[in-house]
Amino acid sequence: MNSVELSLDEIYQLAFDCLKRAGADDANADAVADTVKRAERDGSVSHGLFRIPGYVATLNSGKVNGNADPQPEQVTPAMVRCHGQNGHAPLALARCIEMLAQSAKTCGIAALSLTHSHHFAALWPETEALAERGLVGFACVSYTPMVAPTGGTEALFGTNPISFAWPRQDHPPFVFDMATAAMAMGEVQLAARDGHQVPLGTGLGPEGELTTDPKEILKGVLLPFGGHKGSAISLMVELMAGPMVGEGFSFEAAESNNDDGGPPQGGEFILAIDPKIMGGENCVEHAEKMFSKLQGIDGVRLPGERRHKLRQDTGPRKVNSELISKLRALAQNSQ
Amino acid sequence: MNSVELSLDEIYQLAFDCLKRAGADDANADAVADTVKRAERDGSVSHGLFRIPGYVATLNSGKVNGNADPQPEQVTPAMVRCHGQNGHAPLALARCIEMLAQSAKTCGIAALSLTHSHHFAALWPETEALAERGLVGFACVSYTPMVAPTGGTEALFGTNPISFAWPRQDHPPFVFDMATAAMAMGEVQLAARDGHQVPLGTGLGPEGELTTDPKEILKGVLLPFGGHKGSAISLMVELMAGPMVGEGFSFEAAESNNDDGGPPQGGEFILAIDPKIMGGENCVEHAEKMFSKLQGIDGVRLPGERRHKLRQDTGPRKVNSELISKLRALAQNSQ
After folding, report:
1. CA gap A24, B184 in Å, rounded
2. Which listed residue, of A67, A96, A298, B165, carries a Cα 20 to 30 Å from B219's Cα?
3. Are A151 and B301 in contact (CB under 8 A)?
């Protein structure tokens, strides 16, 4: 893979310029560009600049409102709701997290319903932001049908990621963020682009057959991770990020989607718990016993550790050259 | 397998008599016997009478308090806490569910922290009870170390089940309840007793080798379902049902356990959400669209459906004869 080096500021600016050129206002372009920069910073390449063409496509097609001005509202002392005004999710999330965190610190637990939003990023930015405030965070979103329920051969579920974050003492939070599909679609796309095989069980080809060829899976369907148990969790995400927050299912999002290559409209559910109210002052310190145990086992690594290690490097990041050429054209609006 | 037929009332009474004879008071014996009866009713055999010898052992050894009188307290309008007084969980749960449900109906979301309790049953009784009240329920407990984190070969996590329930229109709730281990220990024990093999990936033998022999796995360790993703979810359960609610981890429960064959002390986390407050009046009806889709796919079955179908049969249940002889002896205290 040919790559070029860009500083984190250059990554931000390139993303910002593409979004502005496509019609986003400063607040929206800033929120998305910041999310993209943080993904590249943490080595989460499939959620970095790789996504900008999709963000731009949705602005160009008019599906997404680049001037959304979402305002969170306090529904009950423990519940925050936000209508995303059909914008990209990052601005709404940036505005909601503090109200959600304050609600959890008052009530011990609180939840956010974000609707009419277009989510195209990882989930760890929102759960990690809660854990950085001393809270336990959980989040999930659905997407567009790409995953067959266990036993089926046609897409019904989104890749439906879930993320969980736990505040740690003297460490960055413990955070996992994973598709409930056997593999995230972005990873399958990268494998197809780079000519890699994927593990058997990742998905089915167009005839419903198991295959290790990511290009065949892109024509077929992904499978849930972990068989019927993962399939049940993916269905839980459909319900939680759909009707429970006042939104539709993946298959409904797909029905109203214009297939411009960017994310359809969807909902997000975020849960925040103050572990000190629930479990007592000592509980974060107590939890360190488990992390010590895990770090003492050969062959076990904590999710999120790689991201947090990469984050310490403030230097430039390698980005695929073709992608950069494409983005520079988008930033000039000469596509 | 030789079996005898018992009516549901006889199942309840046999369980009740065993517990009373071992020192439980009426309230505790009733709550546990009712839980056991409902498990047998729903065909959840590994959580039925099969567990009574374990319940009895913990009463006989003095580890569990058969006269626990747990009282839920309202910590915040959205948070309920209950000290289980070292009793078996069913009485505490029966007393907490209504307060938790009312909190969720007031605040939109609420959580329960149950500590100092001994959980030896399925989780669906508590999540289904919430869904029967129109709420979305989620629950998890940890147990005693039986599962190696992905990459490891020694037990660190419990089988750490999670359960989720969703209220349905004109149907029993949608409920799943599953170990985050590849297989629940009760199922492995039943397979060993009945001479069945288990799927590769269920666990490791005493030398850390993959095996399909449940007897070897009973000498070794279980594995999480779904590889590193299931392992991350199991760790989430350790944190949520442990320090987050003010309890210890599985490995700490094991350190203070007397190995009498019954459940160690542990915590439980239960979440209740009022989907009508969060998602609007229409959301339960809306969700039926997904269940219709799923039920239209050949090869897909909804978790919980088998249980709800078996429940409709109010007739006698077949129970292993050896187990019945053992329980009748326990009920006479002549073991």
Report:
1. 51
2. A298
3. yes
Residue (of A143, A120, A152) closest to A36 by Cα position? A120
ipTM attached to this prediction: 0.96
B154 vs A: CB within 8 A: yes
| Average pLDDT rounded to a whole number, residues B239-247 | 98
Whether B168 and B288 have beta carbons less than 8 Å apart is answered as yes
Q: CA dihedral defined by B244, B247, B251, B254, rounded to 10 degrees?
A: -160
Per-residue pLDDT tens for A103-134?
A: 999 999 999 999 999 999 999 999 999 999 99
Question: Is residue B102 within 8 angstroms of chain A, CB to CB?
Answer: no
What secondary structure letter does DSSP report for A330? Answer: H
At residue B261, what is the residue type? G
Instruction: Report all structural domains of chain A as residue ranges with CATH numbers, in order of start.
Output: 1-67+304-335 (1.10.1530.10), 69-181+224-303 (3.30.1370.60)
Task: Tokens for B248, please give them.
Answer: 């210890």
Q: Please state the separation of Cα A331 from the chain's center in Å.
A: 24
Q: Do B151 and A176 touch (CB under 8 A)?
A: no
Please pick, among B47, B88, B116, B119, the residue that the annotation labels catalytic: B47
**Cα A180 to the chain's mean position, in Å?**
12
A251–B293 C-beta distance less than 8 A: yes
Residue A187: the pLDDT is 87
Of the CA atoms within 13 Å of residue B77, those in its CB half-sphere come to 14
Query: Angle between the A8-21 and A52-60 helix axes, to the nearest 10 degrees?
Result: 20
Question: Residues B106-160: pLDDT tens digits?
Answer: 999 999 999 999 999 999 999 999 999 999 999 999 988 999 999 899 999 999 9
Q: Do B78 and A176 touch (CB under 8 A)?
A: no
- State the smallest CA–CA distance between residue A179 and chain B in angstroms: 9
The Cβ of residue B265 has, within 10 Å, a number of other Cβ atoms equal to 21
Q: What pairs with residue B80 in β-bridges? A: B74, B112
Residues of A annotated as catalytic are 46-47, 187
Q: Is A279 on the interface with B (CB under 8 A)?
A: yes
Say if the Cβ atoms of A297 and B151 lie within 8 Å.
yes
Three-state secondary structure call for residue B281:
coil
Task: Specify the residue for token string 């925040």.
Answer: A272
